[in-house]
Amino acid sequence: MPDRITVTVTDRISAIDAALTLVHDGFVESGFMRPQRARRRVIPQYFNPGTFFAVAYIAGRPAGALVSVPDGPFGLPSEAVYPEEFSRIRATGVPIETGSLAIAPAARAHKRRLLTMLFAAQVRIGLTRPEYIVSITVAPEQERFYRAFANMRRVGTERDLYGYPAVLLAAPVTEMAEWASSGTSVLRRTAHRLYTESDPSWLTLDLPVGMSAPPSEEALLERVGFPLLFSEETVSA
C-alpha cells in the first residue's frame, strides 16, 4: 500500500514554517538562491492578502509545499520577469501565481503524487474565485506535463528566471477543472476526483472565513507573523 499523503492549506505561521524551510532548501539545491541563516525563503509577495500555503505530509512529516499568491499590493513573484504577460492576464481575469514548489529529498519517490495533490488543493481553493487565472513558471521541458495535466498554456516567450530558462504558463481555474472532468488519462481522472471529492479525508483547510477579502492589519500580523518572517535577510522573487 502506498504511503498516505495528507495536505494542509493554511496561512498560519506555525504551519507554514515547515513550508518555508522546504522551499528554501529546494531553491538552494537548485541554485536559485544563496543559503539564508534562518533557512527560510520569504518574498514580499507572500504577504499579498489571500496568499495561502499547501503543505503535504507523509507519516506526519512535511514532504512537499506549494504557495499560491493572488494579485495584490506586492505584485506577483514572477512579474518582474514577465510584466507584459501579466498585464495581458489581468485584462482577462485575476491572476494568482502558483509556485515555490518544493519536495523533500526523502519524499521524491512520491513526487508525482505529491505534486498532483498539492495542485489539487490549490485548484479547490481557486474554484471559490472563478475569476482566478492560475499561472506558474516552469522549465521548458516541464511545459508538456502541465499542458497534459491542467491544460495550462504558454503566455509570452521563454525568459531567464533565477538564471535558468523558464516559461510562464496560465489557465483559468474553471477551465482547469473542466479539462480534468473531460479527461480519459489516469492523470486527468485522478485530478478530477481530487478536485470534486465532497469530503476529502486527505485535505485539511485552516484558512480565515472569507479569506478573499483583504484582512485588517491586526489580523495579518496575527496570522502571518510579518515581523518574524522579515527578521532575516529576504530574497527577491
In short:
The chain is α+β, with helices and mostly antiparallel strands and 237 residues long. 35% of the residues lie in helices and 24% in strands.
Structure, described:
The protein is built from eight helices and nine strands. It has one domain: Aminopeptidase, CATH 3.40.630.30. It has 237 residues and is an alpha+beta fold.
Radius of gyration: 17 Å
CATH evolutionary superfamily:
Gcn5-related N-acetyltransferase (GNAT)
Parts with pLDDT < 50 across at least 5 consecutive residues? 210-237
Helix content: 25-40%
Distance, first to last CA: 39 Å
Overall 3D geometry? globular
Give the H and E element order.
Answer: EHEEHEHEHEEEHHEHH
- Number of DSSP E strands: 9
Overall CATH architecture: 3-Layer(aba) Sandwich
Describe how the helices and strands are arranged.
Elements: E1 5-10, H1 13-30, E2 52-58, E3 61-70, H2 83-90, E4 94-103, H3 111-126, E5 132-138, H4 143-150, E6 153-154, E7 159-161, E8 164-172, H5 173-181, H6 186-196, E9 203-206, H7 217-224, H8 226-229
Parallel strand pairs: 1-9, 4-5
Antiparallel strand pairs: 1-2, 2-3, 3-4, 5-8, 6-8, 7-8
Helix pairs in contact: 3-6, 5-6
